Amino acid sequence: MRARCTVAVALAVLLATAASVAPAQTPFAGRTVTVLVGNPPGGGYDRFARLVARHLPRYLPGTPTVVVQNMPGAGGIVAANHLYNVARSDGYTLGLFNRNLVIAQLAGVQELRVDMRRWHWIGNLAGETYVFAIRSDLPYRHVLDLRHAEPPLAVGSTGPGTGSHDYPLALKVFLRLNLRIISGYQGTGEVALAVERRELDGRAGAWSSLLPHIRRGVLRPLVRTLSDNPDPQLRAVPVDQDLATGEVARAVLRLRSITLKLGRPFVAPPGAPVELVRAYQEAFRRLAQDPTFRAEAERSGFEPAYTSPEECLRTVQEVLSAPPGVQRVFRELFQFGE
Question: Which one, of 119, 87, 127, 123, lies nearest residue 102 by Cα?
Answer without folding.
Answer: 119
